[in-house]
Amino acid sequence: MNKTKIYWICQIGGWTFYALFNLLLFALAGGNVPDFQILVQLLLTGYFIVYSHIYRYLIVKWGWLRILSPRLIPRILLSIILLSISCFFFEMALNVVLGITIRSSDILAMIVSNFFGNMLLYFLWSLVYFVYHYFESYRSTLQYQASINEIQLNKLKSQLNPHFIFNGLNSIRALIDEDPKKAKMAVTQLSNILRNSLGMNEKKLVNFEEEMRTVRDYLDLENVRYEERLQTKLNIHPDSHRFSVPPLMVQTLVENGIKHGISTLIHGGLIQLTTDVEKGKLKIEIKNSGQYQQRTNGKPVGYGIANTVQRLKLLYGEEAKFNIFNLDDSFVITQVVIPEQVII
Predict the structure, then answer these.
(1) 229: burial class by Cβ within 10 Å (0-12, 13-18, 19+)?
(2) Which residues pair with 321 in a beta bridge?
(3) For 154, which DSSP code?
């Protein structure tokens, strides 16, 4: 069950229980519950559901869930006071509309009890909502950090193993006499890739442009190694720079396409990276020569795919999509769709 369903079950169920509890108190106090009281409680339930949902919308919009300091307390208290005042006037308006008369001697007691009672309700609602999200955020952060550590270790194992460095340095060494300027550039590209790998868990997200610089460095370095066996095409939508992506995610998927696809083909092949922006979401598509095959246990080949799926789930939940499939006998398509912002 996703968070949205849980939220609405708690929202509707909680306020409905409060209304039923009030009716029970009326029944215990007077024996019979007047019809107008049932109507009042029904209208109040709808009111509490709507206004607490608006309160929740503003909490998310203003980023209060990301604030972990005492300066958040006055904002919550002010919101609770405003909501309680609004609810009090709503109750008074109901009394007028329904023709419920209140004795002048009871007005002060009603104001005090209703106002502070509503404050207590909204305080409890805020307490439950914020505590739930703080614990959820803390749990997600621990999961994300554990995942990032695992990804970083695998990444370093892949990129720092002797075979990888041997191939990279061998390619660079061949260029030193032939094209010193290109060899110098290749050294820079290799160092950029390794530096980005080492600094991976400093950030949860990086700008797409920054990620593309790493991808270009990686492809340029692989072009030195594969030469005419590797063809590359980049079709980047101009609005892609608005988005942030998990660091090294695109580079890992490109590397996966080369390692498990193009490198296995005698004549090499094509790797094409295309992005598009639709309905506020970034669609990344990587097309590479080769065939996608799962292991016999059903798990994907290579750690890159499995960890990409896990990182997307931790960061975006159900807002992100991942798919990989064979287009035909010659090409594999990897697709990633992510929203513009991370919703916490």
Answers:
(1) middle
(2) 337
(3) H
Q: Which tens digit of pLDDT belongs to each residue from 149-205?
A: 666 555 544 544 455 567 667 778 877 877 888 888 888 878 877 776 666 556 778
Q: CA 315, 313, 245 angle in degrees (round to 5)?
A: 45
Backbone angles phi, psi at 285, to 5 degrees: -130, 130
Cβ–Cβ < 8 Å for 94, 101: no
**Beta-strand pair 230-235/269-278:** parallel
What is the bridge-based pairing of β-strands 230-235 and 206-207? unpaired
β-pairing, 244-245 vs 331-339, is unpaired
133 and 199 fall within a common domain: no
Residue 329 domain-assigned?
yes
* DSSP alpha helix (H) spans, the chain: 3-30, 35-61, 72-97, 104-159, 162-178, 180-198, 208-226, 249-260, 303-316
Q: Is the whole model's pTM more than 0.85, yes or no?
A: no
Q: Which two tokens stand for residue 211?
A: 């990620």
Residues 322 and 173 in one domain: yes
Amino acid letter for position 66: R
